[in-house]
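Shipment paperwork, digital attachment
Item: protein structure file
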Amino acid sequence: MNRLDHRDPLVFDTHELGRRPGSMRKVSRTLEAPEGLGIIDVIGVPEKSDLKLELRLESVVEGVLVTGTAEARVEGECVRCLEPVDDAIDVEFQELYYYAESDERHRSRTGVADDLEEDSDDETYRLEGDFFDLQPVLRDAVVLALPLQPVCQEDCLGLCSECGARLSDDPTHHHDAADPRWAALQGLSAAPGDEGDGIKNSGTREGLAENQEK
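Attachment content:
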């Protein structure tokens, strides 16, 4: 039973391609990007933004070899200064979609055990009738092409740790900070009664100076 919805723009029909090895067909399609096409909370293709696909479908003995490119706009947040990141990507991908009977023969030859069948299913893409779903292949290609730590510019200086100012806007930005080793002594400089001591000490220093002159 075909579980794929032929109305889904990422589901493609290979009926016109036929099963004669060597047959080839090109497909161009611009569609709205599905949700989840990227790295969650980091960077990705905005949902419903334009996604341009250029595909080449080739009939081979085992199934249909799909080779293509995808162009899209990506949005994210700079990991250094938290400013928005807006860029474009152009990714390439290739995947073989097996005919149902070819996949059965392949698994029989490789001796896949029943308890490993589920893992094999995750690694193998199949045609359902004449249709194939490009979305999982496209998602993998886009995610691998995206940076795990996006930046607004390669030399982004990040944020000031004191006030949060964006350092790239003012590279000379800085704060005058007292040496923490002297912080405990700052409170002693204006202690009550110091005025008298200061006069006494001043007189003592003057007396010592006079003695030295004599």
